[in-house]
User: Fold these one by one.
Assistant:
Number 1:
Amino acid sequence: MSQQTPGSTAMQAPQGDAFENLSQENRRFAPSAEFAANAVVTAGEYAEADADRPAFWAKQARELLSWSKDFTQTLDWSNPPFAKWFVGGEINAAYNALDRHVEAGHGDRVAIYFEGEPGDTRTYTYAQLTEEVKKAANAFESLGVTKGDRVAVYLPMIPEAVITLLACARIGAIHSVVFGGFSAEALRSRIDDAEAKLVVTADGTYRRGKPSALKPAVDDALAHDGHTVQNVVVVKRNGQDVDWHEGRDHWWADTVGAASAEHTAVGHDAEHPLFILYTSGTTGKPKGILHTTGGYLTQGAYTHKAVFDLHPETDVYWCTADVGWITGHSYVAYAPLINGATQVMYEGTPDSPHQGRWWEIVEKYKVSILYTAPTAIRTFMKWGKEIPAKSDLSSIRVLGSVGEPINPEAWMWYREVIGGNGGRKQTPAPIVDTWWQTETGAQMIAPLPGVTATKPGSAQVPLPGIAVDVVDELGETVPNGHGGFLVIREPWPAMLRGIWGDPERFKETYWSRFESMYFAGDGAKKDEDGDIWLLGRVDDVMNISGHRLSTAEIESALVSHPAVAEAAVVGAADETTGQAVVAFVILRGDAVDTGDDIVQELRNHVSKEIGPIAKPKTILVVPELPKTRSGKIMRRLLKDVAEGREVGDATTLADNTVMAQIARSLKK
Ligand code: PRX
């Protein structure tokens, strides 16, 4: 495959040598007989879904959810790429996550075990959580929020985050969560784009034992005229002083605390918008990914049950993702509760107060299903297996991975040290590596733990009812043993319904690269068995610790600094975080290169513009940037420099001395 894809100079096909190593992987781990015998789904599910995909999803929708009005048509795909699932159906997401479990007699089952970073804990049963959500729904309505209004959510990982999301869903308001690690500026642009009426936030949270603030960012984000926000509800979490805007700001305890616990949920149309979640694309402006109700809940619930082999009466499930990302939406706020599961929610970092915190939590709550990201696993590997060995991890029976490719070494460590309780368990827990995206809404590729013989490093097979393929540049399916681009051939229930306020961008971004196929932006390979290996993004999106960031977004943050004339950003391979941000900047003629000072200042500037997660690890001041004759920056060459490789083919550069100039300046 050529390096440059026609029609897009930015898009790079996966590198050849990445394929070579993978072909050597021949370890297989079949499910134990006992696991397979008790598994909630069996191999028959694939054939059933293949025989009639819409019928399969219609069955899941009716089995897993309670509809206030049944749907009359499973899928309307008459106007692609705009899909309608479960047409005519009406459903309330919060009722499905809460009330119906209480009505079914499970009100005393624990919904959430919350563990705060300082060690405080709270437990919510399904009955209690239902009551809190009803109060929040009443409180938001009393602040003038009605169906279709947007609510921005800027909260830490505390139960109020889940309560807020479900309260919005209950009244048909559309939530737009902004990750607490994003800056005031990022929050402002998201609030403005969605024209939010209400913001729900907290005074702050705790990070590594110290209070960390959130409310000041909301105040900054609302410091300009012309915004649409009428009220701000503030959860008191860390007790720090906050500025108060009388009339606009309300303490959660006063509004939600005082509201009535009576609230009747009404059904909303299956295609009623549930939420917007902004994610990075290839341009500087994040996209508001829009999800709707019926299909999103169906696929979330089905995958959560099937991929984690969920037994809701006995399992304790813990997904470590923050509610600010899609994983925290689908697999913390929605699917586990829809499925009536008991889950753990943890506020803080893995190393607070010490590096064994997670494993103490697993032991304390007897976590049986753990879902986390490869970056965390690699960090634990670095810290050493003696740390988890201090805790009893024997309760773990399924391990999930998400967000980035998991290298076979990390996979094996996860299996043996965590899933095998440090070698004390005869049969280690199966690992399910789950590939999906903000846009897909729910898991798309993953093994089924009671069916699939798993393979270290591969996400393997599309889930039942999902049509994933790997194609070449012309959109033809590649044979086994070959790499190409990951696409989705058929609509799926949890698919994004569009980009908030920009239907053209939706078509252009995902549906124009290959005819009638969704283009995911990932490179992938099919091995000799036909199993899928994810090889990372082929566009200008980076993946830092499983967090999605765009090169263009960081470049525009850098050039907004008065000292910077031009900037180019690449994601360079990093042992722990998968990729790390490396920036090349040209300073303005009148800017003085103060060495470390300017680098530090620029790093802080990016942090202020986007958030600490986007801070470049390395900034290199260079005299020129490599560009093609049409003015496109050749990031591939910069990536070679950033990863310490010999620079590749530079013949298409407008000025072929540029790479030598860069090399000379870096030596200096
Ligand atoms: O490149 C893929 C990578 O994460 C991207 C999606 O990022 P985001 O929308 O933030 O959602 C992350 C959580 C679902 C994908 O395009 N990715 C996600 N899961 C995997 C993965 N790469 C390899 N293996 C995975 N299991």
Number 2:
Amino acid sequence: MSLYNSKFDSFGSYVPEKIVNNYDLEKKVDTSDEWIRTRTGMFERRFSAPHEAASDLAFHAAEQAIYSSKTTRLKDIQMIIVGTISGDHPFPATACILQKRLGLKDIPAFDISAGCTGFIYAVDIARRYIESGAYNNILVVGVEILTRSINWDDRGTCILFGDGAGAAILKRAEKNELSRIIDSKITADASEWELLMHKAGGSRYPASLETVRENAHTIYMEGNKIFKHAVKSMYSVSADLLKLNNLDVKDLDWIVSHQANLRIIDALADKFKAPKSKVIVTIEKYANTSSSSIPLAVTDAIKEGKIKKGDIVLLTAFGAGLTYGTVIFRY
Ligand code: UT7
């Protein structure tokens, strides 16, 4: 039993200025706009400038979330959780670097490594801290600069990724308040974790001349297998959570799934028997931004007047680990 309710108070996002479209990629690798569009739904993606690191993108998104909030000021933030697999350094946590940049002190700050499910994991943890009564206001960020880890020799993965950051402030909600996080669930099936990884640079394969020569500091993914896992996992965890809360897909105003491939997003909508008009899609302009794809999509949807106060929204993601999870909330 939770003592309190929690809610999303505000959202913010940031993408780097540089746009790289499919025609730019055609000049660099053996690919085509036609292949990328039909197989993934992607057209443009953002690439960070050389001086930008994850904490810089996270800072701008966090600033926007704080600015957008009518009730939470910077000094009210009591914890920072960052979902990322491309932080500034292997350690310390990017959340700590963000804490200093925001000018905050003496609050817990830590990263979550859950691949593209990082934001969903961070939200699940944050809401439980709030609902237990331990904290009132938590800043949650999903940020990625995966364009730094692209294997340009693998045309199946190098065209997929873009950079970006999304942030949200989670807050204690009054018991009678309409806005609240209805429920969330995070989980993982690690039986095939090797399908998606960044092999070297950790304690198993420390950085060496050999790991660099082998391109082992880049993203490795078995796309076809991951595709099947993604649809199955996001559907099962979402269907379970809806059922547990006596909700039907018809009760949802919006579905925001991780933006990895338009065919995955469509397949998920088909399994849900949900009309495409309920599904938020940003993949054409940002491509796959991993843990930032969901908060980026939600921020855009709010700005465009799609997601409105009172709407019921389902967020679901899937990623390295293999992790997956779902959040259902009323905005
Ligand atoms: O965010 C974390 C989770 N990630 C995901 O969920 C991603 C899941 N996987 C996918 O989205 C898809 O599997 C990909 C987009 C990665 C690949 O699409 P696919 O339809 O599974 O293509 P494929 O790997 O089966 O390749 C089909 C063909 C191959 O040629 P042949 O063997 O049929 O002659 C590839 O060599 O397409 C070729 N191909 C390309 N052609 C042009 C692969 N990449 C490219 C490319 N341009 N960039």
Number 3:
Amino acid sequence: MATIFTKIIQGEIPAHKVAENDNFLAFLDINPNAKGHTLCIPKVATDKLFDLDEAAYQDLMAFSRTVAIGLKEAVPCKRVGMAVIGLEVPHVHVHLIPLNDMSEMTFNHKVNMTQEELAFTARHIASYL
Ligand code: AMP
């Protein structure tokens, strides 16, 4: 099913991209829990994480791990948290969230960032990948 993430993959709407290869894309969440909150998605649209085949699942986890390691270097934090939800956008995505406090994993905790701040943050994270 095509979602807003399909439009991002196809370049129909903008996103603050952090990393990309033939099969996966990482970009900043537009309504971040914390500065640097990044989404990692497969380019082939699948709704639920555990409906991915074994190889696609493992490859998404490997891609997310690479992004998380760069994210931890780029954005000072205690650790990078990971969550998979998908209730809002039914296209598999791994949330990577730089954490300093448990509240940042609640999805009620949001930070305001301008488009310029998001663009700068995306370039900064990308420089660590
Ligand atoms: P969920 O499906 O519940 O895991 O949440 C979807 C996430 O996608 C939320 O954190 C949204 O802020 C984020 N999101 C929705 N639309 C966009 C977009 N156009 N660009 C970046 N992030 C988005």
